[in-house]
Design brief:
309 residues; mainly alpha; 10 helices; 0% strand
Length: 309
């Protein structure tokens, strides 16, 4: 770990920061965007599961590995950043609150967020679509096997992304700049911009979520709280909605995905393209087929052409 008092520490951390940002930007522009566009064209579950597995491993190695390296170098700046944030007016006010009150507020907020999210998804179980920020519809699991990857990706993102973007990166930027405001704001902005493959709404939504997660970490001083919150947010999108609204846990293979509406008939969903909403099935009346004339001995001898039934 580099000492905050060593004159060369900011320079070394600056080089590490530049290399980290270059790698993240290159990954976002060349890899994430290209792979996601290709992923959206997959119509069967086999290539989708391969891509899910690839993303899971790559995210764990890339973000997790970067977090370990940065924290080994900049760990001593983690408590220094938290102390600097507590020096903000809002930080001083929050620190002055009774510990029991803070715990009660945190528990109440958690109950409202989790309970409210589950309730809203449950109430929307019979709708054909749920509004989302950004181009993320293709990421929703479509069957039981993909649902497992949705859960794994959610837990992995909660762990490695929080370690990097809420713990390691702010400490690294603070070690370079010495400014807590720059460290906090820059980390949230970088986190949002790296989701550019989801479009402008996705970037805006990620900025808001990143700000919320950063506030949770700074307020509690525990990265574990931010990890749990992040995992729950992703589980809502990649597990709860697919299960409650689309009932994907009942599907295997490439069965079509339709909302769990009582008016929806899954037999009509075969013509629906993956990821699109299914229209209610409407039966088309079939005209009765005229009865065939009786088959006689004369027909058997070939004297009279046989009528078409």
């Amino acid at each position: 770990m580099l000492s905050p008092t060593w004159p060369l520490t900011p320079w070394i951390l600056g080089i590490v920061l530049a290399a980290l940002l270059a790698g993240l930007v290159l990954r976002a522009l060349r890899k994430d965007r290209r792979e996601y566009q290709r992923f959206k064209r997959f119509e069967t579950t086999a290539p989708r599961q391969r891509m899910f597995r690839k993303w899971l491993i790559a995210s764990f190695v890339t973000f997790g590995g970067a977090s370990v390296i940065v924290l080994l170098l900049a760990w001593q700046f983690v408590p220094l950043l938290l102390d600097a944030v507590r020096g903000w007016p809002v930080g001083r006010w929050f620190s002055s609150l009774d510990g029991t009150l803070v715990a009660g507020i945190a528990l109440g907020v958690a109950v409202v967020l989790v309970g409210g999210t589950v309730l809203l998804v449950y109430l929307a179980r019979n709708t054909e679509d749920i509004a989302a920020l950004g181009d993320v519809a293709a990421l929703l699991p479509r069957n039981r096997a993909e649902l497992r990857y949705g859960g794994a990706l959610s837990l992995n993102a909660g762990l490695v992304e929080e370690l990097l973007f809420r713990l390691a990166l702010p400490a690294l930027i603070f070690g370079v700049s010495g400014n807590a405001t720059v460290a906090v704001v820059a980390s949230v902005v970088i986190f949002g911009l790296l989701h550019a493959y989801q479009g402008v709404p996705g970037v805006v939504g990620t900025l808001l979520i990143g700000g919320l997660l950063m506030a949770i970490y700074l307020a509690t001083g525990s990265i574990l709280a931010a990890i749990v919150a992040h995992a729950l947010i992703d589980l809502r999108s990649l597990v709860l909605i697919p299960v409650v609204v689309y009932r994907v846990h009942r599907r295997v293979g490439d069965e079509p995905v339709v909302p769990a509406s009582p008016v929806a008939d899954t037999s009509a969903a075969a013509s629906v393209e993956p990821g699109s909403a299914a229209k209610p099935f409407t039966a088309t009346p079939v005209e009765p087929v005229p009865a065939a004339e009786p088959f006689t001995d004369q027909d058997a001898r070939g004297d009279t052409p046989h009528p078409q039934a």
